[in-house]
Amino acid sequence: MDYVWGNYKHKRGTIFTTPDGFKYSQHKARPGVIYLRCILHQKVKCKGSAKLNSESNTNDPLKHHNHLVSDYNTEVLVLKSKCVSAARSSHERLSKVFKDVVRDDPSLIDVSYKTLESAMYRARREIEPPIPKGATEFCQLIVSSDFSIYYKGEVQVGCETGVLFFSDKIKISLSEVDHIYFDGAFYTVPSQAYQLWTIFARFGRNVLPVIHCLLTSKHEEIYTAVLARIHELVPQLKPIHGMSDWEKGARNAVKREFQGIHLRGCHFHYTQCIWRIIQKLGLSTVYHNNADFKKLVRSFMTLPFLPEDQIISVFNQLEVRDLPLSEVHMNQYTIFRKYLRRQWIISIPRNELSIFNCQHVTNNGAENYHCRLKKDIVVSHPRIWFFVEILNKVIQDTDLDIQRLAKGINITRSRKLKDIQNDSFRAQCKEKLVSGL
Question: Which InterPro entries match (predicted)?
Answer without folding.
Answer: MULE_transposase_dom (IPR018289)
